[in-house]
């Protein structure tokens, strides 16, 4: 059950990051500008963010396994359609369909695992699942580079089809078959519509702002609309009989801080996904295959540290393990903050490996799910996936915005592509961006450290 669940989780997360390294190839083959080709990444992430909460609520009502298995089939069909695409509109439509399946999978996988395993093994089981999820997120550029070295970009999507079919068959044979009852389904349509529009407005504002500037009146208006919609969503959820999100779940400091810190970590992870492929392929002039192999240092070390961290979290708590892991992040981030093209590749590989260690040891899933009650496991899983995907989407937009802004400042004009004639602009912008990444991890340290201090103070006062 854990294998079948984790394999599909891996694929759905992988497809959020694997396309990054293929953007130049897609741009050339489909004959579209680079900034339009980047929609292939952003459309997938934004659609998942808009759909996750809906399917998390639905999974709690009709069953997590039916939602997960249906999502697997939709994701496989969407992957096949992506691979067969011959134009940008066709590819974007297929990515939306793929995101539909991915959101169904992501909203229900954690709930299936916590339901199947006893409480004492949640850390180990979710730690192993985290291995697949985190590897899917950070291994995308590496796996994509290796695939592009031997095949075209279509195979980035085709590879999902046989794996997804096998995972579905294994799940069909192993998962308990429960009757699906739809007559008790209650959907908070006003709340969901408000939430989805808020997410879409927010990310359109970000991507539009990258091109025209964030002081543009239309961009400011979209940000304001998103803020109003969020307030409206909270107002609706407090008053409907069957809310989309039971806001009481956020009364748990461990759950709320777990969501926020996981979002910050995934934001930083996407700095690597966006910046490192450009640095390796454009600045260092390495091939896609070589860049992919170097980037594989992250998931290889992640594979070791994630299950190890899960086992340790069963003994000392996921929050403590995650807190210690955050300090490991400073090693690679400070290295990337100062790295120069003249440095040995060994330093870069070491930094990526340490990033994999830190990313795997950070136990976001056990931390989030362990702080949610049994009645909240479905929506908690959806919120965990939502935080992860919002983190990735924000990381993508923030990393590119910081890169473009700093290069534009150096050039004295708007720059929205790699400056081949002035590579030092990119290097300085990369260092500037990683300075922000250090700040994001520092914020996560303060939040998680505050939670541990608060719990320690409460425990001491109760003695």
Any chance you could write out the topology, listing elements then pairs?
Elements: H1 2-17, H2 23-30, H3 34-37, H4 39-62, H5 64-84, H6 88-116, H7 122-138, H8 140-150, H9 155-158, H10 160-174, H11 189-212, H12 217-237, H13 253-283, H14 288-295, H15 297-316, H16 318-338, H17 345-361, H18 364-370, H19 377-411, H20 423-462
Short description:
This protein is an all-alpha fold and 463 residues long.
Q: Give the DSSP E fraction (strand runs of 2 or more residues).
A: under 5%
Taken together, the total number of domains comes to 2
Order of helical and strand elements? HHHHHHHHHHHHHHHHHHHH
Structural class by secondary-structure content:
mainly alpha
Question: What is the level-2 CATH architecture name of the largest domain?
Answer: Up-down Bundle
User: Rough shape?
Assistant: globular
Runs with pLDDT <50, length 5+? none
- The CATH topology name of the largest domain reads Growth Hormone, Chain: A
Report, as a whole number of angstroms, the end-to-end distance.
42 Å
Discrete helix count: 20
Q: Give the quaternary arrangement of the chains.
A: single chain
Helicity level: over 70%
Rg calc: 21 Å
CATH class of the largest domain reads Mainly Alpha
Largest sheet: none
Q: Indicate the mean pLDDT.
A: 84
Count every beta strand, where a strand is a DSSP E run of 2 or more residues: 0
Q: Looking at this structure, what is the CATH superfamily of the largest domain?
A: MFS general substrate transporter like domains
């Amino acid at each position: 059950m854990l294998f079948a669940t984790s394999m599909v989780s891996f694929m759905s997360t992988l497809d959020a990051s694997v396309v990054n390294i293929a953007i130049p190839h897609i741009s050339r083959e489909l004959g579209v500008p680079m900034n339009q080709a980047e929609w292939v990444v952003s459309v997938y992430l934004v659609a998942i963010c808009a759909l996750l909460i809906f399917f998390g609520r639905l999974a709690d009502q009709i069953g997590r396994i039916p939602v997960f298995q249906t999502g697997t089939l939709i994701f496989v069909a969407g992957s096949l359609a992506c691979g067969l695409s011959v134009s940008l509109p066709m590819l974007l439509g297929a990515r939306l369909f793929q995101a539909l399946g991915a959101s169904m999978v992501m909203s229900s996988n954690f709930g299936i695992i916590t339901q199947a395993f006893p409480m004492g093994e949640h850390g180990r089981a979710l730690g192993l699942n985290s291995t697949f999820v985190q590897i899917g997120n950070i291994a995308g550029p590496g796996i994509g580079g290796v695939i592009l070295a031997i095949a075209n970009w279509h195979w980035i999507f085709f590879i999902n089809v046989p794996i997804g079919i096998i995972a579905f068959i294994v799940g069909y044979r192993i998962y308990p078959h429960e009757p699906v009852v739809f007559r008790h389904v209650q959907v908070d349509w006003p709340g969901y519509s408000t939430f989805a529009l808020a997410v879409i407005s927010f990310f359109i504002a970000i991507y539009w702002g990258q091109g025209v500037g964030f002081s543009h009146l239309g961009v400011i208006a979209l940000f304001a609309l998103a803020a109003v919609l969020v307030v409206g969503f909270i107002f609706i959820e407090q008053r409907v009989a069957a809310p989309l999100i039971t806001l009481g779940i956020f009364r748990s400091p461990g759950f709320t801080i777990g969501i926020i810190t996981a979002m910050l970590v995934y934001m930083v992870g996407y700095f690597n996904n966006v910046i490192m492929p450009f640095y390796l392929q454009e600045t260092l002039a390495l091939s896609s295959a070589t860049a992919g192999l170097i980037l594989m240092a992250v998931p290889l070390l992640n594979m070791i540290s994630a299950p190890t961290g899960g086992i340790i979290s069963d003994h000392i708590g996921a929050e403590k393990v995650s807190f210690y892991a955050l300090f490991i992040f400073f090693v690679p981030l400070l290295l990337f903050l100062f790295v120069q093209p003249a440095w040995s590749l060994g330093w870069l590989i070491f930094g990526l490996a340490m990033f994999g260690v830190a990313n795997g040891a950070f136990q976001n899933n056990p931390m989030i799910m362990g702080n949610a009650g049994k009645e909240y496991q479905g929506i908690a899983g959806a919120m965990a996936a939502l935080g992860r995907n919002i983190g990735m989407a924000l990381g993508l937009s923030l990393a590119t915005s910081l890169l473009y802004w700093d290069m534009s400042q150096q050039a004295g004009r708007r720059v929205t592509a790699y400056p081949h004639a002035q590579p030092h602009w990119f290097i300085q912008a990369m260092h500037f961006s990683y300075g922000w990444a250090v700040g994001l991890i520092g914020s996560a340290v303060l939040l998680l450290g505050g939670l541990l201090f608060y719990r320690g103070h409460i425990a001491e006062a109760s003695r």
